[in-house]
Amino acid sequence: MKLTWLYYLPCCVLLGALTACGQDPAISADEKLSPITSQIPPPHKPMTEPAVVAPLVYQLAKDPFVNPYRTAPSSADTPNTPSAASDHTASRPSSQPDPDATKPNDSDVAKESNRPPVRESSAAIANHPSTYQPTPKGKRVRIDSSRVRQPLEHYDLQMLKYQGVLSDHSRTMALIASPDGRIHEVMVGQYLGRHHGRVVDINADRIELIEAVLAEDGHYYHRQSMLTFIHK
């Protein structure tokens, strides 16, 4: 009897294993996931829009170390020593110039800092390997003071050199060399030079621009200019 029980023991174990494996695993997984899937998901908070940061580009301005409101010292601030000044002047030989006579005071420095830049003369422009050919000013115009200056607007137009042109079926780009040796790609609509020179046409021989030149009356006027290609 004891041997008979041992004979049926492996069969019982095998039958129990087959019964456990026969259960559908998908049903067991659904029973475990049903409490989770039946829950109501929490509401999602709307995403906040990212803050738009305006790009900051350095703009060349006046010298910050010159105080335009500083004036020359008044007579009340200077010591009243006419005798010492006269003795100092009398002791100096007449052939030597007075160094204080040619020294500018603070008011002159302030006036010079606020004065508009002096234009180069035609002789100074002729000393450059010039490709700068302006024509007389035209009608009066207004400029966009809020426009961000482009890299080649930090140079005088006569300092730029037209080196070549690249073109395909859709666009044409001019190759401009700046004084620092870099080559810039310029297309129609971009700006060159210090006088708001906007590129209006590019061809193999020249680049045509329309500038807004500041005149002595304080207004801006149209002026047609061009950069010609230098054949080496």
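(the above was protein one; protein two follows)
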Amino acid sequence: DGSPHMFSPENVMDIQRSIGGDIIMAFDECPAFGTGYEYAEKSMHLTHRWLDRCFQRFHETPGRYGFTQHLFPIVQGGIFENLRRESCAYISSKNASGNAIGG
């Protein structure tokens, strides 16, 4: 109907649970190719803050439809190796059943 919608880490978790996703992706920001270091770093930290909110919501809501649903964090950091390593370390600390590698 063209009406605006607000997406948050919490309601994105609810939506993905409700449609029966086997693998639920964490909310993230994937900056465009060529983004500078400063923006890529800020974006990565934003993605990590959103991940914390996703994990909280995911773990406080029950699975749906009688099967296990899995939340996968997404590595970010643009084209910068040190940021991607930092992001890998952060999402690894969540001990998720799997991880995704973002662009």
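Reviewer note on protein two: Residues 9-101 form one domain.
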